[in-house]
Amino acid sequence: MTPETLVRDHTVYACVMGSRAFGLATESSDTDRRGVFVAPAPLYWRLTKPPTHIEGPAEEQFSWELERFLELALRANPNVLECLHSPLVEHADATGRELLALRDAFLSREAYGTFVRYAHGQRRRLDTHIRTHGAPRWKHAMHLLRLLLSCRNLLRTGELVLDVGDERDSLLAVKHGEVPWPTVEARLTRLTTEAEAALPTTPLPAAPDRARVEDFLFRVRRASAEAYPYG
After folding, report:
1. Count of domains for the chain
2. Per-residue pLDDT tens listing for the chain (231 residues)
3. How far apart are CA 36 and CA 51, in angstroms?
4. Which of 11, 17, 6 is nearest to 146 (CA)?
């Protein structure tokens, strides 16, 4: 079974991500699509296993096999958690709707560590670019601010909201290089501090609900095995 067939025929959930999901799209913005597919169970009974992820077949399209997606979500991977909370859902079958109903099972205080580590990695890249080229990548700076805003608000409210709402204009001003870098630096530092301050009183549980997620995966795999009994 080709990767294209897996995405075309076995996708259970698909959404739009990137600037369009964040409320930061402009006329020139790409449309980034993300999805989750379920590889038929008999493919795992062979020596060559199905792929854990697939790029394409369309431009700006990326899909995860369900098990890999769940593993990353349980680790509070920012990209995967945000995928589950996209306001722009393009497809969700019965399995996809059950996956969406599990969104709260993945949210926990562990998100603080993963979001902040990811942000620190992006910040180091920004600093390297400044040292090399004398100026930051403003688009990356904007998205780093957006990520930290999302992290802080998640810890404060227990809800992961992607659309930046009233922050749109200020973030786009950063993207366009209209905000001095020291001001951006100060805001990055403040958001990191505010996220840390929200951690002790966050309504999020200490850990994700792994048992609930594993039960979902087991039922999906069993249904797939029954639907394709002979491979």
Report:
1. 2
2. 899 999 999 999 999 999 999 999 988 888 999 999 999 999 999 899 999 999 999 989 999 999 999 999 999 999 999 999 999 999 999 999 999 999 999 999 999 999 999 999 999 999 999 999 988 999 999 999 999 999 999 999 999 999 999 999 999 999 999 999 999 999 999 999 999 999 999 999 999 999 999 999 999 999 999 887 655
3. 12
4. 17
Cis-peptide, bond into residue 57, ω within 30° of zero: yes
CATH number, residue 9: 3.30.460
Residue 146 belongs to domain spanning = 110-201
Residue whose pair of structure tokens reads 């589950």 in the numeric block? 84
Residues paired with 35 in a beta bridge: 14, 63
Same structural domain, 82 and 158: no
pTM for the model stands at 0.92
